[in-house]
């Protein structure tokens, strides 16, 4: 996650939800047609000007994410696409939301917080303790796992730099599981 942006306008038509976001740092390195991860969902910039950019969430994206619940003034986590030569300092994240999870508990842990997220078995089957998961576009490490849920630790930097510090029980979040786990599953299923 590179920057928190603020939704400044929303509009919709049969093509989807048009979202204008104020984010000076992201807008400065974005051109029309570039991909930008918005709360974990990879979208294409359609306009860029004056520290703002616009994207459109098509019906497929709206059906699989929490983007349809955005309101003007909401903050979103933003990350431009990784460019060739940029350092890879974390987990592999594509911006392809696999599903929506439900926050079931937010527990203080010193200066950090533990976040429990309920997710269906179609997602948790790709989760392992100490493996990666992306929550609203923020790549995190799974600290504990149940059949229907997982927990992650939110360190002070993550609480301050992302929107995750504002999450509470019953909030819905976009989830992206580890793409490598999906490839392994596919290869194993097709093995002779």
Q: Assign an overall shape.
A: globular
Count of distinct strands: 12
Helix percent band: 10-25%
What is the chain-wise order of helices and strands?
A: EEHEEEHEEEHEEEHEH
How does this model look, in words?
The protein is α+β, with helices and mostly antiparallel strands. It is 17% helix and 44% strand. The strands form two sheets. A six-stranded antiparallel barrel has the order 1-2-5-4-3-6. It has a six-stranded antiparallel barrel with strand order 7-8-11-10-9-12. The longest helix has 12 residues, at 179-190.
Give a quick precis of the structure.
With 192 residues, the protein is of the alpha+beta class.
Task: Supply database-style keywords.
192 residues, six-stranded antiparallel beta barrel, six-stranded antiparallel β-barrel, 5 helices, 12 strands, globular
